[in-house]
Amino acid sequence: MSMGNDPASSPPRFQPLRKGRTPRYAQGQGRDGHNLLLRTLLDGYSLFLEDIQGPAGRVFQNFADLLVGRLDLPLVMVSTLLPDDQGLQIVALSGRAAAYLRGFDSGDERQRGGGVLYPARAALRQDAPLRLKIATTEVLPWVERARRFHLGGCLQIPFQDDGGGRWVLSLYCHERGRLPHFSASLTEQLRKTLRQFLERRSDARELLRLRRYQSAALRVQQELLREKSSESSWQRLVEILVNETPVSSAWVAARKSNTSLLAIRALASRDASHLQTLQGLDLSLDPSLWPQGQSCVGQAWRERRPLGPAPLFPPGDTPAAADPQRHPPPLGSAMVWPIFISENSEPRAALVVEADHSQWFNEALRNLLTQISESFSLSLEQREYQRRIENLALMDALTRLPNRRYLEQWLEESLARNHHNAHNCLAICMLDLDGFKAVNDHYGHAAGDHLLQEIATRVQQSLRSNDLFARWGGDEFVLVMEDMPDRRHIEEALNKIRLLIEDPIGLGSDTVKVGTSMGVCVCAGGSQENAAGFLRQADSALYVSKRRKGRRGRVWTFSDELDAGGKDDLTRY
């Protein structure tokens, strides 16, 4: 039971009636008393207008305090009927006789017709104002209790809000006093005013909610544009939804590579235990898997359309049914929006929103979530386009190898990693193809392009994950190898590349063979040279290797085998 401000714990706002005093309203019978009632009600209406967006309990509490203080009533109460007739909930209570209602059980009140809230419930049943006098009423538990608190009678005024909620304003008088004279027209006007206050409050709160939703949508759009990585923007998205809307949980699921499984990539929830449940949730796109494939997330993904509100899993098909200890029951309802990059593509992700009750998913919230899902799709599409543009800028169109620009960026990062490596070194090998011009001149440019593509594929497939093979230009390439233990390992890797390049390549009915020359620069940890300097050293070594082509025992030359001027030091061979 909620009682608003408890008169027992705080002093009343208005001067209580002293013993032996005749109520002021009773003294002012006739026109004066009626005018006092009208002025009091007008001041009450002003309260409703001044605090239209405030909590209903606070406004009703101020109204109850006003009635108690102005009309010298010992007790004024505002209550509302709980859903499914679970009893009356007191939202405002004022007056020195508030103890009359203290300690009662609302559940028992629903069962026992003679409980202390019997008059309010009776007014709700007949949906009309009800006036009762204690002295002439059948002796029931509420009557006996009312007499102990020196109450003489009550006036119950029921009213409704626009959502079908039912309320009662209850006014009690002292046993030696009398209730204010509410004419039928005045009572109806009061009921209308109370109903209008609730309706206007509902409209104001809905407008405020719409403004919050618009603000949330704008923040989501800003975050999706601001964050560089998809998953960080997804996390901000779900956090905003949980903080700015009535949803209980929000999360983003994406497909695991080359599987039918879905993984949660971003997650926010008001409920810590449900957060844990979601973190261990198994989802699949395969409907034959039970229970992982039975979720509405998988269904929305397969059918490529929004879905819900619906249970996350059909009744009886929940992970909780399969493993109650690992998977507690899910929340009430969920809605799912598949996220696409283009209309004809498979979903890239799914936005899942959960709420305790399906009624939270009203039109305003659905419109917001639809707008956010569209922004989500647009951001993924923009990122995909950006990735393609970057790939075009950093990749060689013919061989699909990293280009010179990408190589320079990669090499700076590799040198930074290598700087503190005291055990291994970094090798930069610049190479070109011997005999490529002859193939190009004899067979044509298309054949030359095919030869470059074939060599690029062979070398690329033979590399370690931390190696890089890039096209420098024409028939020149650069190989970067990190974490090489010593020169012997470098030469073994270079010889492997040589054999791949020299292996014959078919051109239609003919077979051609090309060779290679290599210039190698070895970068030890702690070196102060930059990427451009090392590339120059490798290029100088390549030049020497090509010049020595007819009299060399190997196809590569190391830069430290050159003299100080960058020339071939033949005395070393």
UniProtKB/TrEMBL annotation:
InterPro entries: DGC-Regulatory_Protein, GAF-like_dom_sf, GGDEF_dom, Nucleotide_cyclase, Rev_trsase/Diguanyl_cyclase. One of its GO terms (molecular function) is catalytic activity. Residues 308-317 have a biased composition (Pro residues). Residues 1-31, 307-328 are annotated as: Disordered. Pfam families: GGDEF. It comes from the Bacteria. Residues 424-560 form the GGDEF domain. NCBIfam families: GGDEF. This is GGDEF domain-containing protein. It comes from Acidithiobacillus sulfuriphilus.
